[in-house]
Write a structure and sequence with these properties.
It is a single chain. By secondary structure, this protein is an alpha/beta fold. It has two domains: 7-115 and 291-311, 2-Layer Sandwich (Nucleotidyltransferase, domain 5); 126-285, Nucleotidyltransferase, domain 5 (2-Layer Sandwich). It is built from ten helices and eleven strands. The protein has helices spanning 43-60, 94-104, 113-123, 183-187, 189-198, 206-214, 220-242, 258-269, 274-277, 291-302, and strands at 7-13, 17-23, 29-36, 68-75, 107-112, 133-138, 142-148, 151-152, 246-250, 281-284, 310-311. α3 (113-123) crosses α10. The two termini are 27 Å apart. It binds zinc ion.
Length: 313
Amino acid sequence: LNPSAGLLIGLDVGRRRVRLAIANVAHEIIATGMADIPAGADAPAQAEAAVRLVRRVGEEHGIRLGALEAIGLGLVGIVDDPSLPAGAVPARHAPVARRLAEEFGVRVAVDNNARLAALAESTWGAARSVGDLVYVRWSVGVGGGFVVGGRLLRGAHGAAGEIGHVSLDPEGPPCHCGGRGCLERRIGSQALLEVCAARGIALTGLDALVAAAQDRVPGVCEVISAAAADLGRILADTVVQLDPERVVVGGEFASLGSLVLDPIRQAIDGLALPKIGRRIGVTPADLGVNASAMGAIAFLLNEEPAIPGHLRP
Ligand SMILES: [Zn+2]
């Protein structure tokens, strides 16, 4: 094998930062990197940040980008639109995908970044060799992905795995998705910061919230474990219907270990189908912050050429 041939790039363009992974022909990750995105950046600005990151990391590691074969791109939100012909990229995502395709002269395959993290965990991480997986990423928002029979489930409209938008309360507060009382609206970091503030605990953001829980700040652990129980109830419903081998919990909250995982395990163990519930492993994700970028590479390795969401230069 010539390790400089056949490079693949995975990019994860999030709300606040873009992350990069580069794999060689042997499917080994040979470089990773990260860059912040200014708050409120539009798609063209996100695309420029991604291009600059690829160029910078390539130079730092002496990687010849002429050997690049394809780019996998993870984006926030629903990535697909059944009204578009196969091969088209949904308009909302086109600027980022098109800019990357033009800059590097390769095809760009797009999918949701939480779903790609699920694929990465089943390829390299906490669910290696697990054929049926439910993955949830609990962070600022709540995303997820299902691997069924070894394949990432995309859904008819690109929305498979959107656990965060299961409604807990049809009369609840409105959600950015257009629904009401969504799980994300109750347990996303912003909602939990508001609950803490109402109890007189002022915290600046997600990182401060997780750090306060690690420091066992009174009140914070109770808020987070109650939120984990809410998540566990939704995951238990999901498990009854999908019967996975494993549930993997990723995102910043998963780093809190038993505080988060125990309420989820209890909810699944207490299932109406107890023989199934007790056999399902609940484990933290393995791959950390680069999971989605790595999943974008796994997506390129597993993809079917006719899948919607692909852009060819
Ligand atoms: Zn929602």
